[in-house]
Amino acid sequence: MNEDSYLLNVEDLSLKRGSHDILSHVNLRLRAGEVHGLLGLNGSGKSSLAYALMGSAGYEPDGGLIEFAGRDITHFSITERARLGLTLAWQEPARFEGLPVGAYLALGAKEQNRESVAAALEAVALAPAAYMKRPLNHTLSGGERKRIELAAVFAMQAKMVILDEPDSGVDILTLGDVAALVKAMATQGRSVLLITHRDEMITAADSASLMCQGTIVFRGSPDEVRQYYGKRCRMHGGVLSAQPWERDSAGWSIPT
Amino acid sequence: MKAELRPLHQGRVQAEPAWTKELEAILEAYGKAGGDPAVLNKSNVATLVVSSNRVLVANEIPGVRFEAEELPHGVHVRILVAPDAHVDKTVHLCFGMLPAEGEQEIIAEYDIGSGAQVEFLAHCTFPNAIRLRHVMDARIHVGTGARMIYRESHFHGTKGGIEVLPKAKVAIDEGGTFLTTFSLVHGRVGKLDIDYDVAAAKGSVAELTTKAYGQSDDLVRVSETLHLNGEGARGLMKTRIAVRDSATSEVFTTAEGNAPFARGHMDCTEVIRGGATARNVPVVVVRDDRAHVTHEAAIGTVNHKELETLMARGLDEEEAVDIIIRGMLQES
Question: Taking the model in full, what pTM does it have?
Fold first, then answer.
């Protein structure tokens, strides 16, 4: 395998909060044009990995390496990463008082014209005429803001898009909507890191990983990862967000 | 000396080259302040244009009358809206000064007759200000059941050498409505010192919104007092100010609930960046146990998530901050 062919190369990435490991020796690689599903339960560290990859404040790694498009971006600012072609659609999109949807989309769009912005809205099943001039504030529902967030990264035409739980939230996007968007991005040659806790979502991916307790515990095809997830992932003790695997000398196993 | 009232649509201004040049310059500045100069050329739109101490244009329409007197350093204008007049097109006012130095004093009296409805859009423009002082001293009377909307937008150029002192004393009669927005978000602020005092009678409504964006060593000071004197009077004072660099923002608002069922609220948001300073002092006074007055204030930096979202679209931090602040100031 040619090392240079990876668009994203994450090696041994670690992030601590106090004595708690948020990310622990994460290794992840994506090729240009690849759609990769990152599956895991709530609290497994998926979003933390997304923020660390994007360079968010408070998510600076304590160890490891992030390479993107052949550059070591481990200590790059968010802007520098975005200008290299990496972006993120947040799980909970921000509101922007006074900023119309069309203007927001145009800010990062590769082609800053009305047609490009309208196409991005249509890609997330929103009518341009109805949304272009609406302010991106509390008057939009969570689901609408979610779609607009996805439209923003679509319009950007970045080399790689991290989609953090694109199906979550009130008034959720349907699986079909997300799959269609991911497919449209892949058709344009974009890489997508699709983060989700719903195993059926990763069927839209070319490859997949399973994350648990801040690290990647299994890799394979989407089917293999779904099987592994279905067989082995269950809440222990009936506690939400508890993690199903524990690490021992033999590796990852279900706690007894 | 009574100023000659000059309707632009009659074409008289064009006959005097000196005035034409000044008018063109002030209209260009009016455009920079966010106004549409073409509107001032419409005969069915009430218009008043004042440059330094001269009235360049005064176009009256049925129900709206202007009286003006030139003063050594400004003008004294009376703006009269007839009782029950429903003025369907916004009245456009333009006050400005082209020189870099000097003083302009506008003494303005607004008398909105009972039952009248009118909206004003005022642009105050000082594009070349280096050492300039602009004083606006307004007396506003909103008659019984009348409705007055007054929006004022300023443009002060890029030098910051200006001192602007808008002062208004407002009386709203029973059932009247007074809504005003003051906006200074383009160019430098210089020194801004707003002083509004509003008395609201029975069943009347007052809403005061102030928006400003200070940078460098600008000073923004807002003092507003709302006397809810009549039963059921309602009032809102909303302030949105952003300051960066070494600019200072000081907001002093007082709301008095002086009558049964009066309702007042003060809502202040100030965003600071760099070495700027922001201060908010709300004062609540209640003199009737059936009145209710509240306040909320937030001072802090720009929202972290909004900032990172825009940076993830490729904007640098300064660009992102500017967009977030301007968005906040635009929202009213």
Answer: 0.79
